[in-house]
């Protein structure tokens, strides 16, 4: 697996920057500085717990990132635990931190089949009631932060990839309540509430050349083409990019073609939740870090050349507290190393691979 990942990276024109396992100097310019030099951005997800309790992580985040996305603060179960009122405390805390440090923020997410309060689905009693509840929620949330957010994940994970479902859509509470029109409703409501924020449909499972992922790419592309044709105000596709360093089907050509097809619709692309899991790799930390870095570089080299790609956000800047240890645990129980920084906030080979990928990307802006 490691050999295959390394071979793909070498084919993409990359040689590991480090011959040893020493971390990169934390005083070097951060990933956002490297990305910004090419007209891109780099940012990271941040949990409300880390925002409140991890000052060391926040300091590193300010050194590395040019954009933030909250892991939890904008989701329904955070804002609407009680049907009768909104609780913006977590979102306001994130926005206050971002304003203090002049960092743009992505909103995640207005419509999703998970992270919903228990009262929500029973309240979807009719199409009329469901549409009102959805539009009122979006108007309240997106409207509160109108003009202050750079982007919104308007609809998250809408595609199931099952040909038996209508338009291959996931059978969610929103699909059951409103049919496929829920996507239209969400995008129109967001455009009305906050016309300045980039409106994104966000999806996972389209990163590789595996049959079901290739099929899902095509289904997402068909959905986006239909939305664009009907003038639904979608503006971008989010590729979550939860990568797996043990996966050999990188399919760089197919991935680049997919992004080109998205761009041909007049849409932008954002890499929204980048991390690289290692549960199929050996225990050795140097071996894992080398394979992760090679895999990430090969994948990014297929993505970043297209000028429709705006930037990359990692789903966590540091290995400390990564969600992957719970959802995709290693059989040996060792913690995973999916992020640019390790648990002690030192830069790893993955950081170097990402920095090199930004350096190699063609510029989006003219150099002064």
Structural summary, described in words:
This protein has helices spanning 2-11, 31-36, 48-53, 55-64, 76-79, 89-100, 120-123, 127-144, 173-178, 181-193, 211-229, 252-264, 285-303, 324-327, 349-360, and strands at 41-46, 68-70, 105-111, 151-156, 198-203, 236-239, 242-244, 268-277, 309-314. It has 368 residues and is α/β, with parallel strands linked by helices. An eight-stranded parallel barrel has the order 1-2-3-4-5-6-8-9, surrounded by five helices. Strand 8, helix 13 (285-303) and strand 9 (309-314) form a beta-alpha-beta unit. The radius of gyration is 20 Å and the shape is globular. It starts with a helix and ends in an 8-residue tail after the last helix.
């Amino acid at each position: 697996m490691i050999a295959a990942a390394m071979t793909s990276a070498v084919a993409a024109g990359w040689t590991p920057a480090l011959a040893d396992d020493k971390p990169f100097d934390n005083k070097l310019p951060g990933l956002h500085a490297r990305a910004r030099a090419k007209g891109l951005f780099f940012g990271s997800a941040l949990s409300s717990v880390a925002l409140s309790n991890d000052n060391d992580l926040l300091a590193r985040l300010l050194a590395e990132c040019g954009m933030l996305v909250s892991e939890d603060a904008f989701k329904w179960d955070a804002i609407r635990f009680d049907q009768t009122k909104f609780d913006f405390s977590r979102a306001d805390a994130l926005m206050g931190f971002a304003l203090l440090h002049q960092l743009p923020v992505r909103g995640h997410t207005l419509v999703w089949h998970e992270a919903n309060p228990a009262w929500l689905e029973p309240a979807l009693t009719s199409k009329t009631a469901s549409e009102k509840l959805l539009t009122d929620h979006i108007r309240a949330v997106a409207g509160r932060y109108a003009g202050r957010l750079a982007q919104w994940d308007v609809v998250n994970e809408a595609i199931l990839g099952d040909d038996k479902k209508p338009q291959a859509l996931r059978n969610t509470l929103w699909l059951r309540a409103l049919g496929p029109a829920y996507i239209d409703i969400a995008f129109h409501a967001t455009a009305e509430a906050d016309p300045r924020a980039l409106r994104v449909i966000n999806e996972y499972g389209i990163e590789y050349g595996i049959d079901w992922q290739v099929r899902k790419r095509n289904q997402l592309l068909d959905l986006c083409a239909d939305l664009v044709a009907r003038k639904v105000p979608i503006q971008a596709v989010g590729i979550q990019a939860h990568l797996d360093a043990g996966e050999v089907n990188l399919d760089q050509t197919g991935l680049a073609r997919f992004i080109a097809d998205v761009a041909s619709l007049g849409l932008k692309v954002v890499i929204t939740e980048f991390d690289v899991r290692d549960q199929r790799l050996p225990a050795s930390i140097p071996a894992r870090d080398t394979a992760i870095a090679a895999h990430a570089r090969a994948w990014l080299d297929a993505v970043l050349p297209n000028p429709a790609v705006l930037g990359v956000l990692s789903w966590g800047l540091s290995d400390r507290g990564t969600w992957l240890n719970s959802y995709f645990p290693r059989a040996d129980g060792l913690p995973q190393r999916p992020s640019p920084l390790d648990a002690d906030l030192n830069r790893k080979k993955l950081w170097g691979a990402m920095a090199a990928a930004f350096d190699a990307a063609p510029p989006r802006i003219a150099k002064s």
